[in-house]
Design goal:
Sodium/glucose cotransporter; two-stranded antiparallel sheet; 2 strands; 70% helix; membrane; Na/solute_symporter_VC_2705
Length: 563
């Protein structure tokens, strides 16, 4: 069987399992829809959290971006990993003890203010929507290449799949579906890495092969440095000193943005106890580490194979995968000197090959000439990663509208049945809107996701951390900080992103900070504004100070509030 047939089989079987699980775990109450009933096993929650966390950006884009940026791409790896540790250790247990369904719920109650709840709600919608657009691009890329459909059709197919199991199952269905999706994606990511590592270095463990020697006795990274320099690129492992400030800001935005991501935070409300929240955070970190320690090896293997396969090769002799990707428009060959050969070089004037970062992981098995079933497996894994995160994000959007806006603000007397119906309608609308936005995303998957992390860092992180550790932080300070932080960051992003219509160019970046890193500055501004305003306005009420004192001791939490 060829790769096309294997892809149909792998994707078809996994989708049937997802839909079967969603039907089996259909939510019957708002508590099951929002927090899966609050009784999920910590190991299962760790797997679901890992799947929620490892999106299309981690599976499809991260290795691709490291492959083309070299050492500089490691900022994504460091930022996301560090952010998860920060979230698991610093925030999750305290938020779990607070026992609310959503982040706006925490903000609204901690800051005893409907205004604060609404501002947090708007921030959650903004962050989640930006993030889910990145996932839709990942879905579109995978479908367009392996189902021979246009990118737009691929996105629309993805909308249909997510629509079904997210609307039906809510958090309960999504949780069990994500457990299956984690198994699929981690198997799909590691199997080709093991094959290629053994093929190139003789060591089946990718993490060891990454530091090993290739067949001519040269160390892998040394070989990659030589190939890169020969083509006019900088050494793969070279640190770009002129870009260190921006690299720091991007890494920090990813790290602090992670700790403020509402779709990851809400996962810690699905376990019975605070202790279970800590345990599931540890399991999730172990599961995430499998993929994150493999990604740099996959990036290096792919870059060497790509250069050796296409550089200076006659176009008439290119393998089938090359022409297949050309049809998607994500790989473009332009024979500028009309010599019939592919010149892949650093000089933009002479370079004839344009490659979208996001295709590297999907194309990697074909470039390395692995068995056809591995190609199908990787496609199924990429789709699992994109769909699992998209479902989690859509649930945040849904719960923000039905619970925080409708139940807590506009219609407090709404019945549970009415709230559940509103949640399903809002998630359906969000799926369609995200898909339409995904038809024209503003960059690579990882870059789109980086923008979402910047927005989360500049809005939620200071409000959450000060809400837990600063008893003097009042509603005026929190609201002012969130509004100023997210407005500053969003305006900067819009101004410097030409895909969003902004007139700014990289020459105008403040201190050389790109839109992907500006969330760090937005976060610092949020902190300064929040603390300053809180010290010159009405003090925090005593019962709120006692509440803050109480949540600092994670023991003794009950179930998540059913409201």
């Amino acid at each position: 069987m060829d790769a096309q047939v294997w892809t149909y089989i792998m994707v078809g079987v996994t989708f049937l399992i997802y839909i079967g699980v969603a039907v089996w775990a259909k939510a019957g109450s708002t508590k099951e829809f929002y927090v899966a009933g609050g009784g999920i096993n910590p190991i299962a929650n760790g797997m679901a959290t890992a799947a929620d966390w490892m999106s299309a950006a981690s599976f499809l884009s991260m290795a691709g971006i490291i492959s083309f940026m070299g050492y500089g791409g490691a900022q994504y790896l460091m930022g996301w990993t560090g952010g998860y540790v920060l979230l698991a250790l610093l925030l999750a247990p305290y938020l779990r003890k607070f026992g609310k369904f959503t982040v706006p719920d925490f903000i609204g109650d901690r800051y005893y203010s409907k205004s604060a709840r609404i501002v947090a709600l708007v921030c959650a919608l903004f962050v989640s929507f930006t993030y889910v657009v990145g996932q839709m691009k990942g879905v579109g890329v995978a479908f367009s290449r392996f189902f021979n459909v246009s990118y737009d059709t691929g996105v629309i197919i993805g909308i249909g799949i997510v629509f079904f199991y997210a609307v039906l199952g809510g958090m309960k269905g999504i949780t069990y579906t994500q457990v299956v999706q984690f198994c699929v994606l981690i198997f799909a990511f590691t199997v080709p890495a093991i094959f290629i590592s053994f093929q190139m270095t003789g060591n089946p463990i990718p993490q060891l092969g990454f530091g090993g020697q290739v067949k001519d006795g040269t160390y892998l990274l040394q070989k990659l440095n030589e190939l890169s320099v020969d083509l006019g690129f900088a050494e793969y492992t070279k640190v770009n000193q002129g870009n260190l400030t921006n690299m720091f800001f991007i890494t920090a935005a990813l790290m602090f943005g992670t700790a403020g991501l509402p779709h990851v935070i809400v996962r810690f409300f699905t376990v019975p106890k605070v202790r279970d929240a800590r345990i599931s955070a540890g399991w999730a970190l172990a599961f995430i580490a499998i993929l994150y320690t493999t990604a740099p090896a996959v990036a290096a293997f792919a870059k060497i194979n790509l250069i050796n396969t296409v550089s200076e090769q006659p176009y008439s002799d290119v393998p089938e995968w090359f022409t297949n990707w050309e049809e998607t428009g994500l790989l473009v060959f332009d024979d500028k000197n009309a010599d019939g050969k592919i010149q892949y070089v650093a000089d933009a004037e002479a370079n004839e090959l344009k490659i979208d970062n996001d295709i590297i992981v999907l194309a990697n098995p074909e470039i390395a000439k692995l068995p056809a079933w591995v190609v199908g497996l990787v496609v199924a894994g990429g789709l699992a990663a994109a769909l699992s995160t998209a479902a989690g994000l859509l649930l945040v959007i849904s719960s923000s509208i039905s619970h925080d806006l409708l139940k807590k603000s506009l219609r407090p007397n709404i019945s549970e049945k009415g709230e559940l119906r509103a949640a399903r309608i809002s998630i359906a609308v969000a799926v369609v809107a995200a898909g339409l936005a995904g038809l024209n995303p503003p960059g690579f998957v990882a870059q789109v996701v980086a923008l979402a992390f910047g927005l989360a860092a500049s809005s939620f992180f200071p409000a959450i951390i000060l809400g837990i550790f600063d008893k003097k932080m009042n509603k005026e300070g929190a609201v002012a900080g969130m509004v100023v932080g997210i407005l500053f960051t969003a305006i900067y992003i819009f101004y410097f992103k030409p895909q969003l219509g902004g007139p700014g160019t990289p020459d105008g970046y403040w201190f050389g900070i790109s839109p992907e890193g500006i969330g760090t500055l937005g976060m610092l501004i949020n902190f300064v504004v929040a603390v300053t305003v809180s010290r010159f306005t009405k003090p925090t009420p005593n019962h709120i100070k006692e509440l803050v004192e109480n949540i600092r001791f994670p023991r003794g939490a009950g179930e998540a509030s059913s409201h």
